[in-house]
Specification:
Radius of gyration: 19 Å
Distance between the termini: 36 Å
CATH class of the largest domain: Mainly Alpha
Number of domains: 2
Low-confidence stretches: 253-265
Shape: globular
Strand order of the largest sheet: 1-2-3-5-4
Structural class: alpha+beta
Oligomer: single chain
CATH superfamily of the largest domain: Transferase(Phosphotransferase) domain 1
Order of helices and strands: HEEEHEEHEEEEHHHHH
Largest sheet: 5 strands, antiparallel
Number of strands: 9
Length: 265
């Protein structure tokens, strides 16, 4: 959805809910379609996309906290979902934490991810991989900016279900591993010991270092496609190298997971 359509839809949705659209503030994220307005959030988009997001979030709510839908507006330009604005920082907000606290926060995120991986996928989501009827709910964008944390370090909310699908839970863990270890932004953060402790806590709790190489290869391909418009092939060379290592490992006759397949170069 282009910016002009999103802006028009924001005005329509805000008016429907009795809100002043001039007070809306864009929130972070690549879609540019989420706006904070006082104590609520407005998510604009195509009806079918928002339907799938709601389906996935409702399923995930069985084991992880998600913002409850307060209302919805459907108009000619698209749809708007009204959500509560949760007063909590993202998991990536590590300022003021020592390394032990950061590691505990990461572990809480990892435990949340393992719990999510036990949720059966609802019918209607896109299906990935070979699981078929046994597919689990996949978030596929589970990273620190999409997780809010409470004062005690536990997960307060899981956001942004746009990429949700059904498939093997290893795909979701591999996707997160690629974001935490291979994304250029994450690589730059590895000079910060607090960030490293956070990632280590998440990785250990969610067993991100023990992934089937086929899942790692899938996640690397996903990342290469996802970041192609933002980075050059040279800047993503380390992702291509990780993909090659995972593909080679997946060809092993014993099917072992490959230590280091998602590690930094």
């Amino acid at each position: 959805m282009d910016a002009s359509r999103a802006s028009a839809l924001l005005e329509q949705g805000a008016a429907h809910f009795g809100l002043d659209p001039s007070r809306a503030v864009p929130l972070g994220g690549m879609t540019g379609q989420v706006f904070a307005l006082d104590d609520v959030v407005l998510r604009v988009g195509w009806p079918g996309v928002l339907d799938l997001e709601a389906l996935a979030a409702a399923a995930g709510a069985a084991v992880v906290p998600v913002p409850a839908v307060l209302g919805r507006y459907d108009g000619a330009e698209g749809s708007v979902v009204l959500l509560p604005r949760i007063d909590a920082p993202t998991a990536a907000t590590l300022t003021g934490l020592d390394t032990a606290s950061a590691r505990r926060r990461g572990a809480a995120c990892g435990r949340m991810q393992l719990a999510l991986g036990e949720v059966p996928a609802p019918a209607g989501l896109p299906v990935l991989g070979p699981e078929g009827a046994g597919a689990r709910l996949l978030h596929l964008d589970l990273h620190p900016l999409n997780v809010l944390v409470a004062a005690d370090g536990e997960v307060a909310a899981v956001l942004d279900w746009t990429n949700a699908a059904a498939g093997p839970p290893e795909y979701d863990r591999a996707r997160t591993a690629s974001i935490l270890l291979l994304d250029p932004v994450a690589i730059a953060l590895r000079v910060d010991p607090t960030w490293v402790a956070f990632v280590d806590g998440w990785s250990e709790a969610a067993a991100l270092d023990d992934l089937p190489p086929a899942a790692t290869a899938w996640a690397c391909r996903y990342m290469l496609a996802d970041l192609a418009g933002r980075y050059t092939e040279q800047e993503l060379g380390h992702v291509q190298a990780a993909l090659g290592a995972a593909v080679d490992a997946a060809g092993d006759s014993d099917g072992r997971s490959v230590a280091g397949a998602t590690a930094l170069p």
